[in-house]
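Data deposition worksheet. Section B asks for the primary sequence of the deposited chain exactly as it was used as input, without tags or linkers unless they were present during the calculation. Section C holds the resulting structure in token form. Section D is free text for depositor observations; keep each observation to a single sentence. Incomplete worksheets are returned to the depositor.
Section A, Depositor: J.P.
Section B:
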Amino acid sequence: MSQFEFTINGTTLKLTAGDVVKLEAAMVDATKSPSRKAFRKGSTGDISAQWLDGQGDGLERFNRHQPPAEILTDC
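Section C:
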């Protein structure tokens, strides 16, 4: 089973690759409903994310799709 280790402000978390995917999905959902927690079921329990600064202008949204790349050609 693939695992990732994250250290944030001295706290270390070990998450499975599947949990990282669930965390990302919770983060995306949280951007759609600012100031409300979004939940996903992880391998060891609930994973939640909350967008704290979502009330202000300039709310950035996560997007799984990259914008189309520009193609430069020599005419």
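Section D:
The CA atoms of residues 31 and 58 lie 12 Å apart.
The first strand starts at residue 3 and ends at 8.
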